[in-house]
Amino acid sequence: MSRRALSTPDRAHVTASPAGGPWPSPQCPEPAVERASRRRRHEHPTEHRHPTEHRHPTEHRHPTEHGHPAGQVRFAGRGVDAVCQIAIGLAIFGVYLGVAHGLAVSRSAADARGADLLAVERWLHIAATEPLNNALRGHTALEILAAWEYATTYIITTFGLLGVLWARADPTYRWARDSLAVTTLLGVACFALWPTAPPRLLPGERFVDIVAIHHPPLSWGGGPVSAGANQFAAMPSLHVAWAVWMVVASMRARRVGPAGRAFGAAHLGVTMLVVLATANHYVLDLVAGGAAVAVAAPVASGMGRWATASGTRRVAAADELFLHVQTATNPQYVGGVAMLDTSLGPAPTLDALRRHLAARLSAMSRLTRRVVPAGRLRHHRWASDGDIDLSWHVRETHLPAPGGQVALDGLVARLSVTPLDPDRPPWRIWLVRGLGAHRVAVVVIVHHAVADGLGVVALLRHLLDLPSPPDPHCPADLRTPTDLHPSPDLHPSADSVTTSPDGPAPGPERARRLARAARTPVTRPATVVSGLVSLARDGAAPPMTLSGPLGRSRAYLTTAWSLPAVRSCAHRLEVTVTDLLLAAVGSAATAAVAAAGEEPSGQVLRAAVPVTMRMPGSDQHGVPRGPGNLTAALRLDVPLGPMPPDRRAEQITRRARDRRASGRLPASAAALRLMGALPAPLHRAAARSVYRARFFTAIVSNMRGAPRPLELLGCPLRDVFPIVPLAAQVPLSVGALGWNDRYCVAATVDPARLDPVLFGTALRAALAELTSPELTGRARTSPPPGRPLARSA
C-alpha cells in the first residue's frame, strides 16, 4: 500500500524512524508572495475594511518569482482605457477654459470682490499676502523659482500622481480621478458665479505681480492666458485645492509610500507660501480650496458606491458566513494542492498555465468576481471584475533546497494564512517547483465565500482533461468529456445527504433522497422542527484543552493512502468512510491531549462534519454543480482515550447513527437560511456566535474527487490534497479527498495549540492500523443486506 509520510513545516529536522515515527520537517522560508500591483477599484472610505486586507508582516518577494514586481506599471491591454481617462481630463479642462474665456465678467465687480476679501482679512489680522509678497520682492532668484513653481508644479504633481495611480492600477485611482474632477468643477462653478480678482491685480494696492514678470512661456502668469483668466480666478485657489487633494490621495493610495506622502505634504506647504507670496491669492482662497476638497471627497466616494452597487448582487448567506467569521489571524481560505507527474513529458510553464486558465476562465464566473465589503447596515456583495490580472492571480515559485514534500507543506501552511488582495477576485494559483525529480505542484487558494471544498474541486476540474490518448483501461463510456465528472453515487467516499442510518442508496434512489433532503425546509417542516430541537439539546461542545485563541502560524500535514484499501476497511468494520477518518483523527487528538499533560479518557472531540447539499451529477459541461457553499453540517462526537482505532470507529458509528437520522441536517440548512434573512448586523453577529469552538472543537471533511485519471497540461495528477481552514478557537481541521484510487488526507493545525509532529505521527499510525491486513479477521465476509460497502456522513 502506497503511503506518504505526514509532514509539518514548524519543527526542526527530526530523523525518520523505521517504525513510522517522526520524519524530516525543516524550516521553509516565507512563501514567494509579492506586493504586486492591485487592481483599480471603487473606494469605500466610510466602509469598514476587514483586518485581513493588510499584508502579512512576513511577506517578501522571492528572487525566483515571475510576473510583475511590486509597483510595476502595467500598460498591456489598457490603451483604450488610457484614451478614455485622457478624454475625461480634457473635457474638464475644456469646461474650465470655457468659463475662463467665454463668460463676460465685469472687471470692476471682480476688483470689488477682491478688495472686500482683502478688507476682511485685514480686519481678522490674517492678511498674509502683503507681508509675504514684500519679503519675496527684490530676491530675483527666488522670484523666478516662485513664478515657475506657481506656473508648472501644480500641473506636473497633480496629473503625475493621477497617472502613477492609473499606471499601477491602484484601487484608489477611481476615487482620486472623481474627487479631482469634482474639486475642479466646484472651483470652475465658483469662478463663474463669484469671479474675484487676485491681489496682484487690485487697483490702488502695492502688490508686485511676480508671475507676470518672470512667468514661463504660455503660463498662467502672462500673455493671452493671463489676460483671459487671472482677473477672476482667485476664489477658490485651485493650486491649493489640488495640493490638498494630492495629500489626501497619496494617504489613501496603496502604491504611495511614506516618501511620496511626505513629498505631498511638503508640496502643499510650498504651494501655500508661493500663491500668497506671488500675490495670486488671498488667505481665504486657500481655505476655500481646502473646503472644495472636503466636499469633493465624500461626493466621489458616493459616486463609487453608486457605480459599484449598480452592477453587484448580494453574496449568498451561506457564502457570506465565511466573510463574517474571518479574522486577521484566521482567514477563511480553502483550496487544494495538486501533485503533477512530469516524468512523461515537460513540466508546465507559468505562461502555459496562464494561457490555459485564460482560455477556460469564462466557464468559471466565480473567479471573475470580487467582494464589495459590507457596511454597518449592508451585506457583502459580488461585483464583476472585467479585467482579470492573471499576472497577479497565477504565480510561480521555487522551493528552497532540498525541497520536497516537507518544504511544499510549509509553503502551503503560510499561503493558507497570507491575506488575499481584497480589491481583486479572492483566489490565487501557485505553480511550485523544487519538489524533486519529475514532480511539480499546483496550489490553489480560494476564499471560502467563493466555494466550499467540493466547489473548489468543481473549479479545479474545469482545468483538467482526460489523458490523451485516453487510458485504454478506462471504460469507453467514461472517456467522453460530458462524463468526465461523475455523479456522487459513483464514489462511495462522497458525503451523503440522507436521513437513513444505512446511508445512501445507489443510482436514482440516492438522487431522489438528496433532492428530498434539500427541499426539507419547505416540504417537511416537522422534520426541521424536530431537528432544531435536537440541535438545541446538543448544546455546547464538551470543553477541550486544545481549544483556545489561535495564532498566526499554521502547520499543514499531508499523507496519501490507497482508496480501495480505505473503502475495504470501512466495509470490513461496517462503518462509513467519514467515521473511519474521524476515528483516525480521534486517535491523533488523544495523543495530542496526552502530550499536553491532560487525561484524554472521558473527553470528547466534537467534530463539525460538512455534508454536501449538491444535487448529484454534472452540468452541461460535465462539471459538478456549481461552486459556492452548498453544505450543511453535522456535529459528531469522537470519544478520546486509549483504544484501538477500529473500535473507536465502531463507537463513532453507533453515536452518529441517531444524529444522521434525526433531522439535524435539514435543520442546520434551515438555520443557515434563516440567518441569511436577518439584517446585516444580526447576520454578522449570528455567524460569529455559532461558528466557533463553543459548538465544535474540530472540522473534519470527507470529499469525493475524480475516480479516473486526469491531467493538467499533459501532466497526470497523482495526488490532490484539500486545504481546510480553521474556525475561531478551533485549532484542528482535517480534509480527505478520494482521487483516482488515492485517499489524500491533509490536516491544518495551529502549532501553538497542539504539536503538529506528534499529531501527524499519531494520525498516520492510526490510518496505517485501520488499513492493515491484520484487521481482516475481525470483519464480516460480506456487508449486511441493503448496506453499501462504505458510506460517509
UniProtKB/TrEMBL annotation:
Q: Where is this region: Disordered?
A: 1-72, 472-522, 774-793
Q: Where are the transmembrane segments?
A: 82-104, 147-167, 179-197, 232-250, 262-280
Q: What protein does this entry describe?
A: Acyltransferase, WS/DGAT/MGAT
Organism field: Parafrankia irregularis
Q: Which GO terms describe its molecular function?
A: diacylglycerol O-acyltransferase activity
**O-acyltransferase WSD1-like N-terminal domain location:** 317-580
InterPro entries associated with the record: Aur1/Ipt1 (IPR026841), CAT-like_dom_sf (IPR023213), IPC_Synthase-Related (IPR052185), O-acyltransferase_WSD1_C (IPR009721), O-acyltransferase_WSD1_N (IPR004255)
Q: Where is the composition biased (Basic and acidic residues)?
A: 44-68, 474-488
Q: Gene3D superfamilies per the record?
A: Chloramphenicol acetyltransferase-like domain
Pfam families membership: PAP2_3 (PF14378), WS_DGAT_C (PF06974), WS_DGAT_cat (PF03007)
Q: Does the keyword Membrane apply?
A: yes
